[in-house]
Design brief:
Elements (H helix, E strand, L loop, with lengths): L1 H12 L9 E12 L2 H7 L1 H21 L2 E5 L5 E5 L2 H19 L10 E13 L2 E3 L1 H12 L5 E4 H7 L7 E7 L8 E6 L14 H23 L5 H4 L6 H10 L11 E4 L3 E2 L7 H16 L5 E2 L2 H4 L9 H8 L3 E10 L2 E10 L4 E11 L3 H15 L6 H6 L8 H14 L4 H17 L4 H17 L4 H17 L4 H16 L1
Parallel strand pairs: 4-6, 9-11, 9-12, 10-12
Antiparallel strand pairs: 1-3, 1-4, 2-3, 4-5, 6-8, 7-8, 12-13, 13-14
């Protein structure tokens, strides 16, 4: 609960005068916790902890992506600060959209919804922590938010009302606990619903809906493709206080193992002399995770959770307990000229024994064959039975052109920076892939994704949406088993119906 987290801040906030020379600053504060957390824990402790672990890692990722910093946590709560109020509000909206997409796959009574409060205020700084009424107000705003909702203070609203395409509901001045003066509160309308005063959405609300759906599109594509590349740089950051608290809480009780073979594919280490080859080693990891996740007889940890451990010296036994998996695949990639060296090893994390390990020295042109061989080794070692459809799927090669594949990986590297400029760079990479292989279905879908992102975020031209639709159709015509192509088609249909 938030009470323990903010007790010290509350005491400091009530102090008549701060210590002489204390550092102060104006900052945007985000406070979040889980609605109905005690009920969820009472119903299923282990399942709730598993969901909380995954969701808090997603929240950490999004906070860092929006240039924020986690400064504290306790149990189910999160406290973060941002130098920019706009960044803080955008982050809150993206968090709620992302978690809504995650919750869609859970039964209604197991869905985990966060409440978020945002305030702009003066705080005192002590080391990595922040204290004072500015923090306390954010916590009180969070308690006023609905599950899955966002409440902001009047100071936040004044800063963002003309800068973001969002709609807001004025909740008036609210008396909140331990704060002397009433606080003006606004609710961010994250659903983009029309105002009761008007049944026809205004152009501003239409733009707001597009902006929010853009983030849902991004989150959905990331989950399906397994390519949330922003986690890469987050994995290089030191563990936050939130991570340390979570590990401490989770340590006493390891998550139970699923009733079928379970595995996490850790990010392959880039041993190439060129650090710019990081996208290649991460791309190979992405492909292995994506392919293994298609096996019905195998429980595979999602890419975003696996990449949380990138660059960290963590024991496989600890990973097994934290993620609830038995097997860990780890390895390294060295790419030099036209040669490729891959080391891979499969470990039973519950015992520490190596089930299989191999070193491959192959021409770069054998990349796809190597991926297939590693996948087959895992399937055999874990005795996973493949259905006829799964066997057919793994006979499919996405492209025969390795250079096109290389551009495809580079495209995702650019795309998931979520800016207009990097979106254009991603399109260039995928268009180059199509020049090299005009039948590369995934590259067509990728270009379609950039047009969809353009329409939703920067260029609301109907022709942009039509272009995304045409490219997705082309991708499906080449490979109707491609999930990302169907996602783009579905989104374009949805937006076209909404007009």
């Amino acid at each position: 609960m938030l009470e323990n987290l903010f007790r010290r801040q509350l005491l400091v906030g009530k102090t008549a005068m701060a210590p002489y020379g204390v550092e102060r600053k104006l900052t945007a504060i985000l406070s979040a916790d889980v609605a109905g957390y005690s009920r969820l824990m009472g119903q299923a402790e282990e399942a709730t902890l598993r969901t909380l672990t995954a969701y808090r890692k997603l929240i950490d990722t999004l906070i860092a992506q929006h240039r924020g910093r986690v400064v504290g946590s306790a149990g189910d709560s999160v406290l973060a600060e941002f130098a920019s109020v706009v960044d803080a509000v955008q982050c809150a909206v993206v968090i709620q959209a992302t978690l809504k997409a995650e919750n869609a796959s859970l039964p209604p009574d197991r869905r985990m919804q966060f409440r978020i409060g945002l305030n702009l205020g003066d705080v005192m700084v002590e080391g990595e922590q922040i204290y004072g009424d500015g923090v306390n107000i954010a916590a009180r705003l969070e308690s006023l938010a609905e599950p899955g909702g966002i409440c902001i203070s009047g100071t936040v609203y004044d800063q963002v009302k003309n800068k973001l395409s969002l709609s807001y509901e004025d909740l008036g001045a609210q008396a909140v606990k331990n704060i002397a003066e009433p606080v003006r509160v606004w609710r961010v309308r994250v659903e983009g619903a029309a105002s009761p005063k008007s049944q026809v959405p205004s152009p501003k609300l239409r733009r707001a809906g597009r902006a929010r759906r853009a983030w849902v599109i991004v989150a959905g594509l990331a989950l399906i493709v397994g390519a949330i590349l922003t986690v890469r740089y987050l994995a290089r950051l030191p563990l936050s206080t939130q991570d340390l608290a979570l590990r401490t809480e989770a340590a006493p009780a390891a998550l139970p193992l699923p009733d079928k073979p379970s595995i996490v594919v850790l990010p392959f280490v880039n041993l190439s002399k060129d650090p710019e080859q990081e996208y290649f080693s991460d791309g190979l990891t992405d492909d292995l995770i994506t392919d293994l996740s298609k096996l019905s007889g195998l429980f595979v940890i999602a890419r975003n959770s696996a990449f949380f451990y990138k660059g960290k010296a963590v024991k496989v036994g600890d990973i097994s307990k934290e993620l609830g998996v038995r097997y860990v695949l780890e390895g390294s990639v060295r790419r030099a000229d036209n040669q490729l060296r891959i080391n891979a090893q499969l470990i039973d994390a519950t015992t520490g024994y190596h089930l299989w390990s191999e070193r491959y020295d192959r021409p770069l042109t054998d990349t796809f064959a190597l991926q297939d061989e590693i996948r087959q080794k895992i399937v055999l070692a874990l005795k996973v039975k493949l259905t006829r459809e799964e066997q057919e799927f793994f006979r499919h090669v996405p492209t025969d052109n390795l250079e096109a594949y290389d551009y495809f990986l580079r495209g995702w590297e650019y795309y998931f920076h979520y800016t207009k400029e990097t979106n254009a760079q991603a399109r260039q990479m995928w268009e180059k892939a199509l020049e090299l292989d005009p039948k590369y279905a995934a590259a067509y879908a990728g270009v379609g994704v950039t047009y969809l992102a353009d329409w939703a975020g920067w260029s609301p031209d109907p022709q942009t949406l039509e272009r995304a639709f045409e490219l997705a159709q082309r991708a499906v015509a080449l490979d109707d088993s491609l999930p990302i192509a169907h996602v783009v088609l579905g989104d374009t249909y949805l937006h076209d119906l909404e007009g």
